[in-house]
Amino acid sequence: MTADGGVAEDEEKWLAAGITGLQQNAFYMHRALDSNNLKDALKYSAQMLSELRTSRLSPTKYYELYMRAFDELRRLEIFFLEETRRGCSIIDLYELVQHAGNILPRLYLLCTAGSVYIKSKEAPAKDILKDLVEMCRGVQHPLRGLFLRSYLSQLSRDKLPDIGSEYEGDADTVMDAVEFVLQNFTEMNKLWVRMQYQGPAGKKERREKERSELRDLVGKNLHVLSQIEGVDLDIYRETVLPRVLEQVVNCKDELAQYYLMDCIIQVFPDEYHLQTLEVLLGACPQLQPSVDIKTVLSRLMERLSNYAASSAGVLPEFLQVDAFTKLNGAIGKVIGAQADLPVAGVVALYSSLLTFTLHVHPDRMDYADQVLGSCVDKLSGIGKVEDSQATKQIVALLSAPLDKYNDVNTALKLTNYPRVMDYLDHETNKVMASIIIRSILKNNTVISSRDKVEALFQLLKGLLQDADGDYDEVDEEDFKEEQNSVARLIQMLHNDDPVQMFKILTIVKNNILTGGVKRLPHTVPPLVFSSLKLVRRLQSRMESGAEEEVVSETQKIFQLLNQVIEALSHIPVPELSLRLYLQCAEAANDCDLEPVAYEFFTQAYILYEEEISDSRAQVTAIHLIIGTLQRIHVFGVENRDTLTHKATGYSAKLLKKPDKCRAVYVCSHLFWTSDPDGVRDGERVLLCLKRALKIADAAQHMANVTRGSSGSVTLFIEILNKYLYFFEKGNPQITVTTIQDLIALITTEMQSDSAIPDPAANSFLARTKQYIQFQKHKGGSISEKYEPLQI
Amino acid sequence: MNYLLGAFKPASHISIVFTDEKNRKKVPIKKENGQTVMVPLFQSLENIVGKPVQGKKIEHNGIKVELLGQIEMYFDRENFYDFTSTSLDEELDVPGELYEKKLNPFEFSTVEMPYETYNGVNVRLRYVLKVTISRGYAGSIIEYQDFVVRNYSPPPSINNSIKMEVGIEDCMHIEFEYNKSKYHLKDVIIGKIYFLLVRIKIKNMDLEIRRRESTGSGANTHVETETLAKFELMDGAPVRGESIPIRLFLSPYELTPTHRNINNKFSVKYYLNLVLVDEEDRRYFKQQEIIMYRLAEDSS
Q1: Nearest to residue A683, comparing CAs of A744, A738, A638?
Q2: pLDDT for residue B298 is more than 60
């Protein structure tokens, strides 16, 4: 059993004993009440209340006891009331209850009688209240005093000499009411604060917790103050607020200061806060350094923001009192006053201020920038922020404008934005950058000016470059995720004016080229495609004139492209570079820039020769090269020959026979463009196909030798299909006979002993034959062509 | 009832009836046997008028009524000090036979009774009417009738407050103030205690009313102190700068006026004792004398 458990158990016992004592005396009291015996009623009620003199109960348990006494006192109060109606003088009664020897019961009774006294209106409410609140000083024990005064507060709530109340007094009546509540509040707060200094030091934590449970008793007074009708702005400004703040500041207690500041903010109307902002804020730097002022101020600003949002009509008020400047100044002072305020706190404060100004003055970007600037000032000198709490706050701070405007352009206008971001450590910087990008993507923000792009990239440094010095282990997935977002971002940069757009692209280039080997593969492709998009746009302009200009622009773009892809190829990521070169070549083709296209092809070929060694990669590459080359029409004969020759050469050098075979038959397309005016060299087509057949045959043999069975005839069938294609396209070299021979060959192969049945090949062949049949019956010129073909 | 009781008493039963008994205020006094009886109340220089009443016919050699003021010391029971001279004796009747309703009234005019009736711990001061019926052989029949004397004073012309600063060096300094130095019996003590320095953990603070009764003189002086009231002023520990109000109604307590050197036999003084109790139950106190006086009822 822990010591605490024992205490709790004992406490239960003590509470039970207290309740029993209380009930017993309450019983006698009831009897006295029933028989109208005032003397006994007083005697037993005092005894009953004596149970509240205990020091053994924790606040929660004491409260339980108090509530029971409270209920009993209600009955006594009714009795007092009846007693006065029966002719007993309330003044005598008021004296009589004070004969009790013990102070606590005496004061409970006095308050109860006082309540009746006020109701009787035989004396002004203010005098009675004043007397009560003064007499209550006799109880200096914090817990008992708090409950006693809370009882007083409870009883007096509806009896304050407020304006419009039936207890309203003379001219200063409101002040009397205010004075009373303030005094009770002050005394209660003093008692509450004192609690923490009493008892053994070891149990401080527990005491703090208990105190915390009692805070509402104190705070209630502020609530009462706010409910007094007569408290207008003037009284609030001149009396209520200064007095309350004085107490708050002077009590020098962390818990109380925090709670009460919050109470003030929550309880009184926004309008008052706005008009007394200076006073309220003036108190903040005077609070204890450990007080969580940032939360307090945040709440205040939050409230004011909501107030501003509630109606447009109040905005002039904000301007009139210059709320922003005051808040900004106050925050500066708070930070100055609290030397050991953690960085997180500093940033949180500015974060709230920023939220406030964004809500209240959405049009005043200078305010927002000012906030960030102040934040930078405070951060300067501490270097990168390492504390995770603080970085989180900075991220929140920087996210605020993005969330508010949903437009990164606004953030880019804030000159201090990047300066704040500089204080983030590398990791968080990346997080922040991702947030920025996400915001852009989410809102489809188009960033269209050079400056903005420059600024944006400044912000995104973290994603674009490695951190200085340290090379932490980075999760591959995360890294890809980041870089993907950068890639997506590049696509969002757009300007309708090609010249501007080109400038943007140049900036992008400059920024990404320094990104290092790991980033380039992610960042270069979007740049390339974005550039190509621009090229295409320029092309479409070509038709509307301004040719020269366009050509020079286009060339510049291609230069840029060349540069970036080259950078990429050094990494090396040859496959990717090769693809990009080919893309560019095609684009150059569309622009009729033969030398450019040729250059790109050359680069691609060099890459192929020097860098691509993996055979599978080679196959893919060769197919890409062939495909691209096939579509390009810009080349002159010589260039074209060189390139096709090279391509066929590469094909023939592939390692695996089937790959080789396929590459070779694909090469046939290089000699037969779909464009009737383009290259149409039937002979060389046939040559290619024949070579392919040879290779297929060789593959078959090789299979026979090495495995004892001939390989699939699939290659033959594929070649047959190529034959049919060129046959249809009207290649004079492909005749019915050649096709028929091939079909025969295939059939023989399939029926040979060593052939293993291959259902896929069978059906492939069947489908091909079916196609031939279909073409035969289709009618028209095609049918005529196919007519002689016998299967 | 009285009549029946009287029937079994010795034949010599006699009592005194005051003329204005119906209208005269009566106050309780405690008899020696512990019973409380109501007796008439007089003040100095009043006329005390009445007549003896007795139930049976007796022969006598003369009837005498005396008004006596006596001071009785409890430690010295045998000796009464009569301070009122017997010259107030009055012969009621010449010797003869005494019948019912045939008794003559007596009247003591404007008797000077400077001292109040007082019932203390070691001393009492009482007033009696003594009726003596002298009989030759059977001895005299003597009967006493108590009555109470209270004397009223006007409010004092000078009544300063009591104000004092006391303390224990570096431990506690307080300043207290009682609004008056002279209080009447139904008065209210108003005041405050101001804590200038508190380094002691105080548990509570009481205000006591103490009565100091001294009897005898010289080496034979007996002093008896009683605490008549214990009134809690403060619960818990105050901090520096705190001021605690005092409001003590005196009416619930059985107080008497201050008596100074009554007939050189005794004195009764009153003190206010301010007691602070710390958490270790140590008591710190400061005692101050106050003068009590009796203000005429109607004005108090």
Answers
A1: A738
A2: no
The pLDDT value given to residue A238: 93
ipTM: 0.87
- Gap from B10 CA to chain A (nearest CA, Å): 43
- Round to whole Å and give the CA distance between A394 and A284: 22
Query: Does B208 lie at the interface with A, CB-CB under 8 angstroms?
Result: no
What is the number of CB-based contacts under 8 A between chain A and chain B? 55
Phi, psi of B66 (to 5 degrees): -120, 150
B230 in contact with chain A, both atoms CB, cutoff 8 A: yes
Instruction: Give the closest-approach CA distance of A99 to chain B in angstroms.
Output: 7
Helix, strand, coil percentages for chain A (3-state, nearest 5): 80, 0, 20
CB contact under 8 A, A138 and B244: yes
Half-sphere exposure of A517 (CA within 13 A, CB side): 6
pLDDT band at B250 (very low <50, low <70, confident <90, very high): very high
Q: Which of B54, B64, B81 shows the shortest CA–CA distance to B140?
A: B64
Confidence tier at B102 by pLDDT (50, 70, 90): low
Distances A243 to A236, A280, B255 between C-alpha atoms, Å: 10, 11, 45
Closest to B101 (Cα-Cα) out of B90, B93, B109: B93
Q: What separation, in Å, do the N-terminal and C-terminal C-alpha atoms of chain A show?
A: 99
Q: How far apart are CA B102 and CA A560, in angstroms?
A: 152
Nearest to B232 among A101, A142, A145 (CB): A101
* CA neighbor of B292 nearest in space, from B267, B245, B244, B258: B258
Q: Is A544 helix (H, G, I), strand (E, B) or coil?
A: coil
* Residue pointed to by tokens 């009566």: B26
Are the C-beta atoms of residues A789 and A772 closer than 8 Å to each other?
yes
Minimal C-alpha gap between A137 and chain B (Å): 6
SS3 A440: helix
Considering A514-523, B92-101, B199-208, the range whose residues carry the highest mean pLDDT is B199-208
In the predicted model, what is the mean pLDDT of residues B12-38? 83
Nearest residue to A149 via CA among A237, A90, A214, A94: A214
The reported pLDDT for the residue numbered B5 is 45
Q: Does the distance separating the beta carbons of A145 and B231 come in below 8 Å? A: no
Inter-chain touch A140–B231, beta carbons under 8 Å: no
Nearest to A613 by CA among A655, A583, A585: A655
| Contact map slice: A 186-215 vs B, CB within 8 A | 190, 194, 198
Establish if A762 touches chain B: CB-CB under 8 angstroms. Answer: no
Among candidates B9, B99, B105, which has minimal Cα distance to B65? Answer: B105
> What one-character-per-residue DSSP string does A465-504 give?
SPPSS------HHHHHHHHHHHHHHHHHB--SSHHHHHHH
Work out the minimum CA distance from A56 to partner chain B, whole angstroms: 13
- Decide if pLDDT at B300 tops 60: no
- In chain A, which residues have pLDDT < 50? 1-3
Task: State residue A309 phi and psi, 5-degree precision.
Answer: -75, -25
Q: Using a CB–CB cutoff of 8 Å, tell me whether A135 touches chain B.
A: yes
Answer yes or no: do A139 and B234 touch at CB < 8 A. Answer: yes
A101 touches chain B (CB under 8 A): yes
- Cβ partners under 8 Å of residue A619, min gap 6: A654, A659, A662, A663
- For residue B247, the chain A residues in CB contact (below 8 A) are 98, 135
pLDDT of residue A555: 83
Q: Which residues of A touch B251 (CB under 8 A)?
A: 99
Report chain A residues whose CB lies below 8 A from the CB of B244: 137-138, 140
Integer Cα distance of A610 and A327 in angstroms: 66
Per-residue model confidence (pLDDT) at position B55: 65
Say if the Cβ atoms of A138 and B235 lie within 8 Å.
Answer: yes
* Predicted pLDDT at A711: 64
Distance from CA of B285 to the nearest CA of A (A): 18
